[in-house]
Design a protein that fits this description.
69% of the residues lie in helices and 0% in strands. The chain has 148 residues and is an all-alpha fold. The protein has two domains: 1-57, no CATH class; 58-129, AhpD-like, CATH 1.20.1290.
Length: 148
C-alpha cells in the first residue's frame, strides 16, 4: 500500500466500518477466526472493510444489495448471507426490500439459490422479531377466464 497508512491503521479503519455495518455479528465472525486464521480475520477487516467497503462511491445500503445478490448467486454461502442480511437491516434496508432483492435474484441465478437465501432471510427476520414480512399479495386478474 502506498498511501502511507500502516497495517494497524488500515485494521482500525476497517474495524470502525465493520462495527457500523455488521455490529456484533461481524465481530463474532472475526473472533471465530482467532484460533484458526487470525490473518484471514485481519484481511477481512483491513482490506474488505478498511479498503473496499469504506470507498465513498457506493452507500452502505447499496453495497449490501450487491453483496446479497452475489452471495445468493454463488450459492452455498448461507452463513455469510446471514451476516449480510443482518448488515442490510443495520444500514437501512427493510425486510420487504431484502425479500424483493432475493426475489429479483431468482431470474438471474435460479429459484433454488433464491429460495435458500430467502429462508436465511426468514431466519434472520424471525430472530430480530420482524416476521411476518408485510408483502403485497399478487392481485388476481380483473377478468378471470370463465369455464364453458
Amino acid at each position: 500500500m502506498t498511501d502511507g497508512t500502516t497495517r494497524e491503521e488500515r485494521f482500525a479503519q476497517g474495524m470502525e466500518v465493520l462495527r457500523s455495518v455488521d455490529g456484533e455479528v461481524g465481530q463474532r465472525v472475526i473472533d471465530s477466526l482467532a484460533d484458526i486464521s487470525p490473518e484471514m480475520g485481519h484481511q477481512i477487516v483491513a482490506w474488505g472493510f478498511g479498503e473496499i467497503y469504506s470507498r465513498p462511491e457506493l452507500q452502505p445500503r447499496d453495497r449490501q444489495l450487491v453483496t446479497l445478490g452475489m452471495l445468493t448467486a454463488l450459492g452455498g454461502c448461507e452463513p455469510q448471507l446471514e451476516v449480510h442480511i443482518n448488515a442490510a437491516l443495520n444500514v437501512g434496508l427493510t425486510p420487504q426490500q431484502i425479500v424483493e432483492a432475493l426475489l429479483h435474484s431468482a431470474g438471474y441465478c435460479g429459484f433454488p439459490r433464491a429460495l435458500n437465501a430467502t429462508f436465511v432471510a426468514k431466519k434472520v427476520f424471525d430472530e430480530r422479531g420482524l416476521l411476518p414480512v408485510d408483502q403485497q399479495q399478487p392481485t388476481p386478474p380483473e377478468n378471470p377466464p370463465t369455464s364453458a
